[in-house]
Amino acid sequence: MNALMLTLHAGEKTLHLPIIPGFSIRELLDTTTLRVRAACGGSGRCGACRVRLLTAEAPPCTRSERERLSPQLRQEGWRLACQLRPDHSLALELSNPAPAVPWRSLPVSELQWLRGRLPSMRKTPLGVAIDLGTTHLRITLWDCAAGRRLASRWGVNPQEIHGSDPLNRLDYALHSPERSKEMATQLRQTLLDAVQDMLTREVGGGASHLPHIGRLMIVGNTAMLSLLSGQGAAELLSPDNWQQPIACQPIDRSAWQQEWGLPNAHIILVDPIAGFIGSDLLAGILAFNLLEAPAATLFLDLGTNLELALWDGAVLHVTSVPGGSAFSLLSPDPAAWPGLHEEVTLLHDPLLQQADNANCVQAFSPAALLEAVALLRRQGILKVSGRFAPSVAGDGYQLQAQMLTGRITLRAVDELQRAKAACAAAIAMLLEKARLHWQDLQNIWLSGSLGSRIPLAAAKELGLLPPVADASIHQQAGSALSGCEKLLLAEEYGEILAPVQLRLSPFNLATQPRYEELFITHLRLQPYAASQ
Amino acid sequence: MIPLHSVCAMLETYITAYNNAVFDTDRDAALQVIAQALAAGHTPEEIVFELVIPAVEEMMAQLSRDLDANLAQHFMTAQIAAEVTEKMLEQFKQPPKTLGRVVIGTARGDLHSLGKRIVMGCLKTLMVEVRDLGVNVPAERFVEEAVAFDAQVIAISSMMVHTANGEQGCRKVRRLLREQQLENRFRVVVGGAPFRFDEQLYQAVGADDWAADGVSAGKVILRQIRELSP
Ligand code: B12
Ligand code: FES
Question: Fewer CB within a 10 Å sphere, N or C end of chain A?
């Protein structure tokens, strides 16, 4: 069966998009950069989301469309994007798209269905949940009184320009109080921008609704929370504080309320667990109900950094490791990562070997890199040591994914080995600390930008993950945001956090000589068990 | 040392086998070669001076030609060489002459110990005495220990940008040396990822030299020792 496709013409641009049955044109476009105008949350009341049909076959007009569009407009093919739910392939024209903003709706697969209402918030019913990531910001808007999610957005963290690495940003911020303030203000402004975009498009009325926001819940990694609040950066850089919570609270909450124009909002920054273990991990633990999982459940939040939690039935052992550049995601848009949705193929054309090195493999997604390196191993081209077999000439290997050709160099393989070793050794250390063996593992939960998409077979072949059966490995994106939403919808969020906080045992790998040994042995490109 | 030609020819094959194993990061195979050489009647002195050190030197040459040599290989080179040397030294009839003394540690605020470990491995094999100051070492301690150990070189490893370029690391060591008029007595050598990204950084932080990897660190440090006490 051919997939249903939407073809959209907007000025010079043409967009092809798979149709998901049941979804409106507006919902489909909200996940792209080409959005329709909107001011009513897609209820068919504002009439701003007009598009023109270029194909004949389409579902009949809804009542809202008949009310909002004159017979003549309908005759000419005009429809409301929020009402039109195609069941055939369609071509459309969008002559007046919404001004480009850096925000998009999150894919549904990243949003968990949640129950919970806060009747006590009737007067100021709106709530905002925010996951502050190093690379991406994820935000949802709720009607907390009704227990309904109104909208979601994700976009790039504006602090990227000060370095993709949190440490570079901390270093920049610590240079002077002015810089630290500038970075914090910029981030707060960006968050407000996303909230306003949601209010305008999904509630209608934009900023006039800001006073109706009663709660704002923020989770994030420690560095990001500290850069948002302008607090704790210096403490964070000192190893003495690694195992302690770092205070990242705003000094003056009312100043934030004022800056954001949120006079009635209770602004809550969930404190991180420790120096480099953020409240995003805490939120992920809540999202997965880790305390209720069987003993020996491992939770890996794998993004630029890896944060880990191992539940042994009594204690939650938590730690974090940096992956390094092999795991950092160059393109902010997962859909644009070559190799993420398509098979990776290897070409070995000696002529191409001389090709321009600009497209080296780091322009691909980390998932594609893993996939390609696993493929090279399988074919015996690459050895466990991370070197090419003697029969292979040249210093790189062509890789093709999604029309892009690049090259895997030994340097990229080395980077991957380091990142993989750092992660696998961390898993091994946590298991040792809990006196467990990888065979004891009942479940592995994977989340984070890389974790939720990582190719499992490749990850196991290369030893990034223990050889646990696929059926026991669960991949879910957006866990930190889901956990944050749970807290947002809780009458007393502290009561939900307390039982988890009580069980936490943070663990600094940098103080463990054993971690060094494990890192070295896990550098080899072989299954996890072989490096133990 | 026993410069017997026949012995050398024999060792030649061991050197090749040993280097291949190390290059393939196969520790067990490398140790097996050593065991075979011992079983064949070679003395601990021969193993170190005729096999391990030439192998490390050969590896230095190979790795400097092959810019893509990976971390695992550097580890193996240093690790196995240091391990074997340490074991053999215990069995030496006379303690060997050391070529110099080095204090080494990671900069204040930095707990990344792996780079230091590789550098130490190479230095030990090259018969340089090393005092390991551990991780997160304050600048004052680098200087105090260098004086106490009568070292020629202070080696500082920093794996993070702020510990390499910050005020508490090499910059402060340099300042203390100047204040205490010790600049003629010690050379400062740095290394770690940030110095690889910015090859001028070592000068900016007041170091005398730097090296991109552990194996060439051995070479650079030996050169500094020789320059200081020819
Ligand atoms: C393993 C690792 C860790 C381990 C360290 C274990 C240990 N005992 O050493 C753990 C998990 C503990 C760790 C912790 C942290 N890490 Co870390 N870590 C890494 C990783 C993956 C590898 C680093 C490493 O050991 N490399 C091995 C060394 C041997 O390789 P090398 O740099 O090539 O070293 C050679 C040369 O530099 C030279 N050399 C080294 N030292 C010296 C010294 C001299 C004198 C000379 C001449 C030469 C020389 O020889 C070496 C051998 O050939 C890197 C990422 C990467 N891909 O490199 C991040 C990385 C260094 N870590 C980073 C960070 C941020 C951290 C943490 C803050 C994060 C956290 N989640 O806690 C903490 C900080 C801890 C602290 N206060 O120090 C960042 C630093 C970013 C920055 N901009 O500065 C990196 C770059 C990851 C990233 N984000 O990209 N880390
Ligand atoms: S009518 Fe479609 S968004 Fe308002």
Answer: N
**Helix axis angle, B139-149 to B170-179, nearest 10°:** 60
Distance A73 CA to ligand 2 centre (A): 16
**Counting ligands in written order, which one lies closest to the CA of residue B60?**
1
Tell whether A239 lies on the interface with B, counting CB pairs under 8 A.
yes
User: What are the start-end ranges of the E strands in A133-221?
Assistant: 136-143, 148-156, 213-220
For A224-245, the pLDDT digits (tens) are 998 888 877 788 888 887 777 7
Question: Closest by alpha carbon to A300, among A462, A504, A497, A449?
Answer: A449
3-state secondary structure of B201: helix
- Please name the residues in contact with A210: beta carbons below 8 A apart, sequence gap of 6 or more: A195, A196, A199, A260, A261, A262
Nearest CA among A102, A98, A306 for reference residue A201: A98
Q: Residue A520: CB within 6 Å of ligand 1?
A: no
Distances (CA, A) of A319 to A221, A242, A314, A370: 12, 10, 17, 23
Residue listed under structure tokens 């996303």 = A194
Q: Which CATH class is domain B4-89?
A: mainly alpha
Assign 3-state DSSP to chain B and report helix, strand, coil percentages, each to 5: 60, 10, 30
Q: How far is A332 from chain B (nearest CA, A)?
A: 24
Q: Tell me whether residues B25 and A516 touch, CB distance under 8 A.
A: no
Does A192 contact chain B (CB < 8 Å)? no
Q: What is the CA radius of gyration of chain A?
A: 24
Structure tokens at B180: 């205490």
Predicted confidence (pLDDT) at residue A359 exceeds the cutoff of 50: no
- Is any atom of ligand 2 closer than 6 Å to the C-beta of A69? no
**Pair of tokens at residue B112:** 């990344």
Q: CATH assignment of B100-228?
A: 3.40.50.280
Q: Residue B223: what are its φ and ψ, rounded to 5°?
A: -60, -45
Greatest distance between any 2 Cα atoms in chain B:
56
SS (H, E, C) A439-494: HHCCEEEEEHHHHCCCCHHHHHHCCCCCCCCHHHEEECCCHHHHHHHHHHCCCCHH
Question: CB within 8 A of A51, min separation 6: which ones?
Answer: A25, A36, A78, A79, A80, A81, A84, A92, A93, A94
User: Ligand 2: which residue has its CA nearest to atom 1?
Assistant: A44
The single-letter DSSP state of residue A389 is -
**Who contacts A367 (Cβ-Cβ below 8 Å, separation ≥6)?**
A337, A339, A340, A450, A453, A454, A455
Q: How confident is the model at residue A350 (pLDDT cuts 50, 70, 90)?
A: very low
Give chain B's radius of gyration (CA, Å): 18
Instruction: Encode A120-140: b = buried (16+ Cβ within 10 Å), e = exposed.
Output: ebeebbbbbbbbbbbbbbbbb
Name the token pair of A368: 């594609």
Burial of A168 (0-12, 13-18, 19+ CB in 10 A): middle
How many whole angstroms separate alpha carbon B147 and alpha carbon A273?
A: 41
Say if B212 is an interface residue toward chain A (CB within 8 Å). Answer: no
Least confident of A68-77, A473-482, B31-40, B74-83: B74-83
Distance of CA B209 to the CA centre of its chain: 14
pLDDT in tens, A239-291: 887 777 777 777 788 888 888 899 999 999 999 998 889 999 999 999 999 99
Count of helices and strands (H, E) across chain A: 16, 19
**Sequence ranges of the domains in chain B:** 4-89, 100-228
**Tell me, what DSSP letter sits at residue A265?**
-
Residue reference for tokens 């467990």: A436
pLDDT digits (tens, 9 = 90+) for A466-479: 999 999 999 998 89
